[in-house]
Amino acid sequence: MRPLLSKLPKIVLCMDRTDWGKLGKHINILSVAIYFKGRAIPLFWIVFGNKGNSSFEQWKQVLTPAIEGLQQMEWLYGVPIHVVADREFASPKLADWLKNTYGAGSTLRMKASMYLKDGGMPETQIATLLQKLPKGSRRVLHDQIVTRNSTFKMNVVLIWGKGYEEAMVLATTLAKPYKAEILYGQRFGIEPMHKDWKTNAFELEKTRVTAPKRIETLLIPIAFAYILCVLEGGKKEETGDVRTPPKGKKRMVGLFLSGLRAISTQLIRASIGQFRRFIRTLLKPFFKAWKIPAFS
């Protein structure tokens, strides 16, 4: 992924959870991915078999190897890392841990039931503030302590877009909080990735696999295939084979599907010898890095 990551001015990590039931069992996947042109590229995940939301310890479990792996890359030195996540992960404890452990920023969507407090103002519930927010407006609150048990200060942005049924509240470590909405919007790239995993392309939901460890292992080749398709889709845009969407407009066909179609067409037309050379070339860097003799 070096050609992709080395061009990004900021690494935006999306964290999200997806789940489904199968054969009387529950499958829960918590994953971290890098945002790229409307998509998310998977980096790390864990699978657990119980229902319900994930915990702070599980958040750290998926974020730690992803962030440490990125920060060990010399060619990414100086590139900031920022984590975006939905209301399930609305915790100043997470933002505090990211900042003080890795120097990483965060933008998290808050719940209306949470409380805010600054130096000179009494504690106020977010729901109370939202009642006074006109539709189509926004409000920025600086240096807020979020929730009653925290001391970590964040900037908070209250946004109620004209086309939305409810307001959105973002807590961010950004020094310029007005940029939080755009940055948080990149979180939505992970949702189509999960959909592709489950139903659109790889159809995990249709398999009879329910053991968490087996699904974790199965997601390894799926992640590599997903990355290849997204990179191929990006390449098609760069070469002009696929039209780049106008600024501010969504793609009619996502990078993943565009790349999947291109690779599928190539594989269908390829001979066995060409396919073997493709796989050998693809895996050569891994064999070299791990000092494993290349297969014939």
Brief descriptors of the model:
10-stranded mixed beta sheet; single chain; alpha+beta
Structural class: alpha+beta
Helix tally equals 9
Average per-residue pLDDT, rounded, comes to 87
Q: What is the radius of gyration?
A: 21 Å
Q: What sort of overall outline do the alpha carbons produce when their principal axes are compared? A: globular
Distance between the termini: 25 Å
What is the beta-strand fraction?
15-25%
Return residue spans where pLDDT drops below 50 for at least 5 consecutive residues. none
Question: How do the strands of the widest beta sheet line up side by side?
Answer: 3-2-1-4-5-10-9-8-6-7
Give the helices and strands as they follow along the chain: HEEEHEHEEEHEEEHHHHH
The biggest sheet, with number of strands, parallel, antiparallel or mixed sense and barrel status, is: 10 strands, mixed
The helicity comes to: 25-40%
- In total, how many beta strands? 10
Task: List the topology elements.
Elements: H1 2-5, E1 11-22, E2 25-36, E3 39-48, H2 56-71, E4 81-85, H3 92-102, E5 105-109, E6 115-117, E7 124-125, H4 126-131, E8 137-146, E9 153-160, E10 168-172, H5 180-185, H6 190-200, H7 212-239, H8 255-269, H9 272-290
Parallel strand pairs: 1-4, 4-5
Antiparallel strand pairs: 1-2, 2-3, 5-10, 6-7, 6-8, 8-9, 9-10
Describe this structure in words.
There is one protein chain. The chain has helices spanning 2-5, 56-71, 92-102, 126-131, 180-185, 190-200, 212-239, 255-269, 272-290; strands at 11-22, 25-36, 39-48, 81-85, 105-109, 115-117, 124-125, 137-146, 153-160, 168-172. It is of the alpha+beta class and 296 residues long. Strands 3-2-1-4-5-10-9-8-6-7 form a ten-stranded mixed β-sheet, sandwiched between helices. It is globular.
